[in-house]
Amino acid sequence: MMYVLLAFGIWAAGWWLNLRLSNGSSAELTAVKIAVPAIFGLTIVIVWELMVRGFEVNPVILPAPTSVLARLADEGSILWADFKQTVLKGALVGYIIGAIAAFAVAILADRSEFLTRGILPVGGFMAALPIVGTAPILVKWLGSDWESKAAVVAVMVFFPILVNTVAGLKDTNAMQRDLMRTYAAGYWPTLFKLRLPSAAPFIFNGLKIGTTLALIGAIVAEFFGSPTVGMGFRISTSFGQLALDMVWAEIVVAALAGSAFYGAMTWVEKRVTFWHPSQR
Amino acid sequence: MRSILPVLTVVAAILGIWLLAVIPMNMHLVADQGQRDGLVVQPETPAERQEFSGLGLAMRNPDLIPLTYNFKRPRLPSPQQVAGEMYDTIFGKKITSKRSLVYHGWVTLAPTLLGFVIGTGLGILLAVGIVYSRVMDRSVMPWAIVSQTIPILALAPMVIVVLGSMGIQGLFPKSLIAAYLSFFPVVVGMVKGLRSPSGMQLDLLRTYHASNTQGFWSLRLPASLPYLFASLKIGISASLVGTIVAELPTGARAGFGARMLVGDQYGQPLVSWAALFAAALTAAALVGLFSAIERITLKRMGMAAA
Q1: CA–CA distance, B220 with B132 (Å, rounded to integer)
Q2: Position B96 in a domain
Q3: Does the residue B82 lie in any domain?
Q4: C-alpha radius of gyration, chain B, whole number
Q5: Do residues A220 and B120 touch, judged by C-beta distance below 8 A?
Q6: Fold of the A72-279 domain
Q7: Would B171 be classed as within a structural domain?
Q8: C-alpha distance from B138 to closest chain A C-alpha (Å)
Q9: Which of A237, A243, A259, A279 is least surrounded by Cβ atoms within 10 Å, i.e. has the fewest?
Q10: Nearest in space to B86 (alpha carbons), one of B279, B283, B284, B275
């Protein structure tokens, strides 16, 4: 009971602190802007821990954050091996293949107005489909190692990147294209100096959507067959052993990997499209 | 309307690639089967045939090519086989039958829709909270954005099993996943939408001495509708994907996801493929439905549909 009361107390204290911080005079400082969500997140984790202890929740249902942390610290080498297998091999390779393929198709299709008009609706339609359902089929075709995961990821990220790139390449106005023509620029100089740069915000939008899809694809595909390493494999086997703290440790790794991947893309976007209004 | 021809061309190209791919993908299986049925197959032992690619094998046995399109357990079924299987299981069976795709479709669709309604409702409420409360904006909004970069979908099967072990079964666990997946797109979209009125418009309402509630109903909410519809379309397809993934490796007996897995495990690829395409059609129908509602609503409100 003590734990539960303490949990309510901490929740109230965290909320009060955030109330003071975000309505106070220093609310516009960067430090405060970071501190407020951090306090909120920390409060949730502490309340979670206290609730689990207070109600003596069975660790098979919901493990306490401290035991997840302990797993993270103890099983570092296993988690690292899983990370390498799933993120660095499956997700990243598939992402790069899918992105390059989408890019190539977009630039080819872009030469014909007719194809562009066809690809945009079809690609947009495909992007909304449950493509992850092809995972069992692709695992069967390509075997259970990381190649099949990379294939699932490549198919999943292909369509969002394709649609965004094609849409981006159309995003120049007649005045800009005319200017290039007065410089006597041919197709390729126009593509590299005008249309690709102005398509960059769209392309990065597609690439950022792809980061989450890549991790989802790589992990889900491992549920259908994998070598004895990998995040999806670990999640499903630890789950079978009722080691929920290990499952949550993998979740934390997946969340960190997902945010880092997305963050990296955003960082590159900032460097490349520094001129765009949304970045200034 | 002028994009119909290009769309058809692209679809035809995809179908063409598919039709061509059927031959090399199934050639080895067809050759093995053909030999057992007493046909003359060019390299005579299966081991020798493994040396050849599917395409090379097809060149040597051109008379076997038609068989690849009607093989019973193909690696890659031909489009007409998938279409036939879909027609069979959608129209050819009673909808209460365990083999009817309509039955499995409803098993997947019901939790998707329930979860979507819950997720959208909560998402709109949270968005209103975020727009009107600085504390919530500051503390919750960053997490709402970060949560979209987390591959939470991959955990859907586990959530189902945990809830199952707590004795919660049926519609609810799958709806929870569907709700979670539609929740954050709606929150992010609605916050953007509710904030979209310009300072000038807000000032005008202030000169009318409108209260916060009046401002909400007559300015902020209508202004947010285009954003809401964009989020709804993302949310509904995410919900459907979530439900299907939740069904995939959890030993579910019914639903699109279960059909995909059953076909895969019991060597009935046609079942998997039919379920895959039926799921795709369902997703398309749902997104299409929301686009139609969006067009009608925005037209009646005097906003051009984007």
Answers
A1: 11
A2: no
A3: no
A4: 26
A5: no
A6: MetI-like fold (1.10.3720)
A7: yes
A8: 6
A9: A279
A10: B275
Containing structural domain, residue B68:
4-76
- Please give the pLDDT value at position A44: 87
Tell me if B74 sits within 8 A of B22, measured CB to CB.
yes
DSSP string over A181-249 = HHTT--HHHHIIIIIHHHHHHHHHHHHHHHHHHHHHHHHHHHTT---S-SHHHHHHHHHHTT-HHHHHH
Q: What is the pLDDT of residues B100-135, one digit of tens each?
A: 888 888 888 999 999 999 999 999 999 999 988 888
Using CB atoms, which residue from B137, B149, B284 is nearest to A211? B149
Closest CA to A262 of A196, A216, A225, A198: A216
Report how many domains make up chain B.
Answer: 2
B275 touches chain A (CB under 8 A): yes
User: pLDDT tens digits for A14-66?
Assistant: 888 888 887 777 777 778 878 888 888 888 888 888 888 888 877 777 888 88
Same domain (yes/no): B212, B287: yes
Same domain for B38 and B165?
no
Q: Would you tell me the crossing angle of helices A244-272 and A65-74 to the nearest 10 degrees?
A: 80
CA distance A198 to A265: 17
The residues near B204 (Cβ < 8 Å, ≥ 6 apart) are none
- Is B250 found in the same domain as B211? yes
Q: Is the minimum CB–CB distance between B287 and chain A shorter than 8 Å?
A: yes
- B155 touching A, CB under 8 A? yes
Unique residue bearing structure tokens 């690829």: B269
Look at residues B5, B13, B59, B57 and name the one whose alpha carbon lies nearest to residue B35. Answer: B57
Burial B166-192 (b: 16+ CB within 10 A, else e): eeeeeeebbbbbbbbbbbbbbbbbbbb
Give the distance from residue B67's alpha carbon to the nearest chain A alpha carbon, in angstroms: 20
Facing residue for B261 by CB, picked from A136, A215, A235: A136
> Number of residue pairs across A and B with CB atoms under 8 Å?
160
Residues B252 and B134 in one domain: yes
B211 in the Ramachandran plot: left (φ > 0), alpha (ψ -120 to 50) or beta?
beta
Q: Which residue of B has its CA nearest to A91?
A: B151
* B4 contacts in chain A (CB < 8 Å): none
Helix axes A196-222 and A231-240, enclosed angle (nearest 10):
30
Q: Do A37 and B142 touch (CB under 8 A)?
A: yes
Determine the 3-state secondary structure of B281 from DSSP: helix
Q: How far is CA A18 from CA A98, B126, B134, B144, B207, in A?
A: 43, 17, 10, 17, 32
- DSSP letter for A128, please: T
Q: What is the pLDDT of residues A218-275, one digit of tens each?
A: 888 888 877 888 888 888 888 778 788 888 888 888 888 988 998 899 899 888 888 8
